[in-house]
Amino acid sequence: MATGRPATIYDVAARAKLSIATVSRVLQGTGPVSEKARAQVGQAAAELNYMPLRAARSLAVQRHEAHGLVLPDLSGPFYGDLLMGYERWAGEHGQSVVLTVTQGNTDPRRSVRDLAGRVDGIVVHGNALERSTIQELHKAGVPLVLVAHPPVTGCDSVRTESASSAERLTSRLLDHGRQQLVFVGDPASSYDVSERYAGFATALRSRGKAVGEPLRVPLTEQSGKQVAEKVLAAGNRPDGLVCANDELALAVLTTLRAAGIAVPEDVVVTGWDDVMAARYVSPGLTTVRQPMAELGQLAAQRLHERVTGERSRARNDVLATELVLRDSCGTSGATQQ
């Protein structure tokens, strides 16, 4: 089918050579259906990239006034600020938010296909969905906004700047005499972390320094403790740890200090996000502040524009971040844009 419109249940029935009633029972999971019919409908739906979308029905009648928000996880303070920003904007504009978390979901693709039938559009954060599923949703006509995700042709994307800020942060540490810096976090875990590592590497290369392998760990408190213990046991200890988020950095910092390692005198520690604890830990944590609430608000606005037809062309928005200098890297508490 090359009509440029989303497939309908009638297209699926025609492709499967079955009645509308039979196809409806298969898709709705109601009533007795043979395995052969189920297989025929499944194959036809896959070939047509069919899903029960609002976009495939009458816009005037079938508007749900709801956004779907797909997140990989809900742990940590990062998602709280994002959700508050999103909910605030959506609520002010009469939109409800349906949340789906993919971590631990055995079939996220199916969950999101079901979600697409209950909302007007979907926002996907980070690595919550595989790229193939995102492309499938886009091909089917679902309005999409990607947050902290590499741009996908035809989809809106919203993210915060990472590479330049990471380069400035790393350069500052080098300027203050640090010789052996290590990046803590797995660049393969998300687009944002890969950008942070890229900025870290750029700063080192610009000084003619070799770029070592990152410590590829999850961005969790437990991983931070383990990293600190590994550093404590190392014969050739690094003099700086550039962590991919504050949760890692705070655990590293407190574990090192508990073991008698002076921060920043012996080892500098930096994070990313500027969570509340970063301001009150001793020494204060040098980090990069992300406008998470604003990111959520902008994602909601961009999706609303697509759903209402206010805008048809894709946009890629990048919000600025701020380098926040505190005592964990031996600097004054000034903030640098």
Question: Can you put this structure into words, describing what you see?
Answer:
With 337 residues, this protein is α/β, with parallel strands linked by helices. The chain contains 13 helices and twelve strands. The strands form three sheets. It has a six-stranded parallel β-sheet with strand order 2-1-3-4-5-10, with helices on both faces. α8 runs parallel beside α9 (191-206) and α10 (221-233) crosses α11 (246-258). The termini are far apart.
What's the structural blueprint in terms of helices and strands?
Elements lengths: L8 H8 L3 H9 L6 H14 L10 H4 L3 E6 L5 H16 L3 E6 L6 H9 L4 E5 L5 H9 L4 E4 L8 E5 L2 H13 L5 E4 L6 H16 L14 H13 L6 E4 L2 H13 L9 E3 L6 H4 L6 E3 L2 H17 L7 E4 L2 E3 L10 E2 L1
Parallel strand pairs: 1-2, 1-3, 3-4, 4-5, 5-10, 6-7, 7-8
Antiparallel strand pairs: 9-11, 11-12
Keywords:
6-stranded parallel beta sheet, 3-stranded parallel beta sheet, 13 helices, 12 strands
Q: Helicity level, as a percent range?
A: 40-55%
Low-confidence segments: 54-61, 333-337
- Biggest pleated sheet: 6 strands, parallel
Record field, number of beta strands: 12
Strand content: 5-15%
What is the spatial order of strands in the main beta sheet?
Answer: 2-1-3-4-5-10
As a whole number of angstroms, the C-alpha radius of gyration is 24 Å
Distance between the termini: 50 Å
Secondary-structure-derived class = alpha/beta
The chain-level mean pLDDT equals 88
Molecular shape = elongated
What string, H for helix and E for strand, traces the elements in order?
HHHHEHEHEHEEHEHHEHEHEHEEE
